Amino acid sequence: MNLIEMKHVYKTYHAGDVPTHALNNIDLTIKKGEVVVILGASGSGKTTLLNCLSGLDTVTKGTILFEGKDITHMSDRKITNFRKKYLGFIFQTYNLLEHLNVYENVLVGAKLGKQKVDIEEIIDTVGLTPHKNKYMHELSGGEQQRVSIARALAKKPEVMFCDEPTGALDEETGKIVLESIIEANEKLGTTMIIITHNPGIAEIGDRVLRMNSGRIVEEIKNKKRTRPKDITWG
Ligand SMILES: Nc1ncnc2c1ncn2[C@@H]1O[C@H](COP(=O)(O)OP(=O)(O)O)[C@@H](O)[C@H]1O
Ligand SMILES: [Mg+2]
Question: How far is the CA of 175 from the centre of ligand 1 (A)?
Fold first, then answer.
């Protein structure tokens, strides 16, 4: 079954004289358990796509179905609830709680989801067991990003949206972070949507969608996923 379906979706901004079609007739399906990489230069519409897919932003025209349910006409309260229950987010910045340690940050995520989870196991999935009692200022950027992955995983989301998850990281650390994302997909089955302008990252996914000027201009199915450590960076 398709987890997400986007049908003829447009998002048009009216700032200044000419309208910007940030999304220009997008058709897209994502299956449960897939790792999909969305690639495109800055300004191509990646973040807008993510914001519409995740119900943070409304579409101008078109339909988005999540597990067959139309989310484009849900009330604000319902959509907020839907986001909280089913969706996980990782951004370039980590947005962690500085006064809490690793374990406690992940616990905060678990409480959002209200499902029973094994916090220790999730911390282990992202390779942070030796650091679980540390505070954020005691961790490197890559480690902090792995805390944010663990926090997002702790609510057992159906899908995780990763917007430039390695944007602030160097190659070595970035690859470790990507490995955590892939491991989480393999162990927990979480669908992963990874947005990036780094073309090398395309190889870690099952499918790559390339965006340009609000359109999906190319779709590639990878024969097999490449492990993050083996990709070409940049
Ligand atoms: N709130 C907004 N108001 C007006 N234009 C916007 C807004 N958000 C995005 N855009 C425009 O939509 C296009 C796509 O932006 P965005 O989705 O952020 O691209 P990307 O994430 O690929 O860099 C850009 O031309 C951007 O300027
Ligand atoms: Mg963006």
Answer: 27
Nearest CA to ligand 1 atom 3: 13
**Tens digits of residue pLDDT in 150-180:** 999 999 999 999 999 999 999 999 999 999 9
Distance, CA of 56 to chain centre: 13
Angle among Cα 54, 57, 60 to the nearest 5 degrees reads 115
- Give the residue whose CA is nearest to atom 12 of ligand 1: 22
Is 0.70 topped by the overall pTM?
yes
Q: How far, in Å, are 50, 72, 91, 193 from residue 53 at the CA level?
A: 5, 9, 15, 10
Q: What is the CA radius of gyration of the chain?
A: 17
Residues 137 and 114: their CA atoms lie apart, in Å, by 28
Edge-to-edge strand ranges of the sheet holding 61-66: 20-31, 2-13, 61-66, 69-70
Domain boundaries, the chain: 33-58+84-230
Q: What are 24-61's pLDDT values in tens digits? A: 999 999 999 999 999 999 999 999 999 999 999 999 99
Render 113-170 in DSSP notation, one character per residue: HTS---HHHHHHHTT-GGGTT-BGGGS-HHHHHHHHHHHHHTT--SEEEEESTTTTS-
- The highest-level CATH class for domain 33-58+84-230 is alpha beta
